[in-house]
Amino acid sequence: xxxxxxxxxxxxxxxxxxxxxxxxxxxxxxxxxxxxxxxxxxxxxxxxxxxxxxxxxxxxxxxxxxxxxxxxxxxxxxxxxxxxxxxxxxxxxxxxxxxxxxxxxxxxxxxxxxxxxxxxxxxxxxxxxxxxxxxxxxxxxxxxxxxxxxxxxxxxxxxxxxxxxxxxxxxxxxxxxxxxxxxxxxxxxxxxxxxxxxxxxxxxxxxxxxxxxxxxxxxxxxxxxxxxxxxxxxxxxxxxxxxxxxxxxxxxxxxxxxxxxxxxxxxxxxxxxxxxxxxxxxxxxxxxxxxxxxxxxxxxxxxxxxxxxxxxxxxxxxxxxxxxxxxxxxxxxxxxxxxxxxxxxxxxxxxxxxxxxxxxxxxxxxxxxxxxxxxxxxxxxxxxxxxxxxxxxxxxxxxxxxxxxxxxxxxxxxxxxxxxxxxxxxxxxxxxxxxxxxxxxxxxxxxxxxxxxxxxxxxxxxxxxxxxxxxxx
Length: 473
Ligand SMILES: Cc1cc2nc3c(=O)[nH]c(=O)nc-3n(C[C@H](O)[C@H](O)[C@H](O)COP(=O)(O)OP(=O)(O)OC[C@H]3O[C@@H](n4cnc5c(N)ncnc54)[C@H](O)[C@@H]3O)c2cc1C
What we know:
alpha+beta; FAD/NAD(P)-binding domain; 2 domains; 19% strand
């Protein structure tokens, strides 16, 4: 590859982590706490990724379904976020404090933990290419305000969410759904929680990805009323509308507000979905939905940002006009980046399947747990979401799902680990992302220290270290 600008700077680390979302932060923190000289490379100026610039506040999959915490950095992070969230409301506000994270606090907590651990956070630094030699990454080229920089490390971790490093280094990845996946989903004995049933079919369509959303927050909300309609089936009649009166709304007919022949109220997600915010009258809204966007495609992302941002004001108008509890509400902020649920996934040494997640299959190399439901926001936009509860108290994630098949100094964590479309709908959740992050950072540090490949790390020793660091395995 030829660049018009020279690469004039080189930095040297034991571990280089690409991506400062919750997964990358946990990876870099774990590696730094193991004594490795660690770089965290983040294209934005804040940490948290989807949880930061994406404003996604709920941290799901923190405990198993009996309430036993998964522990580790995840537990430490959640504890700090809840403790410091007090700063996001007036001291005399004694309303219910959400147990979910607040982006402003989450990004501060991540920064503080990493700084205390001595990690080198390289903000406003975009990973652009990988140099490889004989199944090894020999360096990664990044761009920052000062120009191009070559970052060299013993071990690399891809926490970009989109598997950017994995793809650039030539490793196999996959995008979207496999054929027939929805037809087989309900034959697994899934305990349904979403509206779709076994009649749902997209035939042999492949490569379908979950839609994107722009989160936003509103103030002046009466939360005791606002959540009443959460996830309920909605018709025109629910809010005293008719097809004709709906058609007069200035946004009717565009961006997810298109009417069809049914009685169902046309909303981007087809539902009201509102969470508690940081103070009693604040709401976090997850109601935008942009379908047909590949978040690893540059043109698609720009289109998605445009449609998603348009939806925000339309939804604010809709909520204020029609939904009880929003009469005196106002928009506070919307996410500065489109929330992307699904893009490329590693095809690793193990591929975690939806069936294994639903059945809670045990693996000899389990390094992380999760409890989240199978939760596929309908890629076609016709249904709210597809999925349901897993059978057991938790599911397991094997170390093999973090390991590429060929490269000997790369680990993958977070949203882009090796899982099929259905399994990914559970493992993409923040709790699981942080746990795979901690496992990858610890493993990378062990590999760097021992001068071995991540695949050669003794998994029992890795698990012992994770347990010593508070992870409940
Ligand atoms: C709309 C929406 C709602 C959700 N709801 C929930 C929920 O209720 N509960 C829950 O637990 N989870 C939820 N999730 C899922 C969860 O938030 C994400 O899957 C998770 O946060 C992903 O974390 P990550 O660190 O793997 O990836 P990301 O958050 O995507 O972070 C990747 C990071 O890498 C950086 N990066 C990417 N490419 C480069 C590059 N080339 N160079 C440098 N940096 C780069 C990005 O800037 C980002 O900071 C939701 C997701 C979305 C989109």
